[in-house]
Amino acid sequence: MSIKLKDGITWVGKIDWELRKFHGESLSTHRGSSYNAFLVEDEKTVLVDTVWGPYAKEFIEDLKKTVDLKKIDYIIAQHGETDHSGSLSELLRYIPGTPVYCTANAVKSLKGQYHEDWNFQVVKTGDRLNIGSKEFVFIEAPMLHWPDSLLSYLTGDEILFSNDAFGQHYATAQMFNDLADQSEMLAEAKKYYANILAPFNKLVEKKIQEVLALNLPLKMICPDHGVIWRQNPAQIIEQYLLWARDYQENQITVLYDTMWNGTRRMAETIAEGIKEADPAVTVKLYHVGKEDINDIVTEVFSSKGIVVGSPTVNNRVLFSLAGLIDELGRMNLKNKRAAAFGAYGWSGEAVKLLNGMLTEVGFAIVNDGLRVAWNPDEEQLDSCRQFGRDFAADFTK
Hints:
Elements: E1 3-6, E2 9-11, E3 14-16, E4 21-22, E5 27-28, E6 33-35, E7 38-41, E8 45-48, H1 56-66, E9 74-76, H2 82-85, H3 88-94, E10 100-102, H4 104-114, E11 120-122, E12 128-130, E13 135-140, E14 150-154, E15 159-163, H5 182-197, H6 201-213, E16 220-223, H7 234-243, E17 251-256, H8 262-277, E18 282-287, H9 293-302, E19 305-309, H10 319-331, E20 337-344, H11 350-360, E21 364-365, E22 370-373, H12 378-393
Parallel strand pairs: 8-9, 9-10, 10-11, 15-16, 17-18, 17-19, 19-20, 20-21, 20-22
Antiparallel strand pairs: 1-2, 2-7, 3-6, 4-5, 7-8, 12-13, 13-14, 14-15
Helix pairs in contact: 5-9, 6-7, 8-12, 9-10, 10-11
């Protein structure tokens, strides 16, 4: 399968409709994904990235239908991760010696993974590759999201091949942003940012400002996953700048796990209190033990505050909450408030432990938390409702 983007520019990637987990089993991809590779034909022919290894043979057979492989003059490897580079070994068996343009860190990555000494051509920011009537301009983007990351701008056509930036794990036959389902596309773009790029917020903003300072005209952004931004491509850049600046919406998310429903009843009543105090705020409630952790991370990313609850079990919190908070620590989230609650039977350490864990990963704790012994009665539920009201009111101080 190939898709013509414009004269001389062809998408030659793979849509993976079946993908449900990515980065091993750590990232959910409910709507699949795509591995975007691009063929650029001028006086010289350039392949920008490949696809994931399991699809290497299929990728090459499809590529043969678009171009004689021996006419490929250069390969640009923007990232060493195997969803981008996984077909290189198979491809270079057909066209050995073809120059592979990449960063110095990508050489380390590719050699380390494939144990091949290909014809590497190391590039850095500002280097150019002339292909006839136009040039590729290279821009290093370390830690977005690997040290080897590279962006490639094509003059003339004014296209930014953006690697993992501006992408989504989203399989769709409508491969352009103006044709795709807008709600699905933007939801997956936010999830992608929250779970993959949020840890590098400051670097994201700095790199975007650096690219904008180059004053490169931009007609299209081609990421390595998801849809291609051809209608108002600046919109996703503007969205990234918002997300990179300690993003929050008018949302409070209540997160809990429970054993015998005491903590669940507390969570639901706290949510009621939040809504009573601020009818305009969006309140979302998640049973962490039953929900997808990456979806929860996305909701926390969108929130100005979270309320987290666990019963005390063997003097500790339930592992679902411990795992979630550990994951949130990797996200490097800033400017978000939190409070803790939980039911208990014999001891009741969970709230204190949650406060400590949340503080450690960067949340501002607004109070000492709320503990309820055993199963909450109506008076205790009233306390939960007031706890929610007080948490919502804290944002007006």
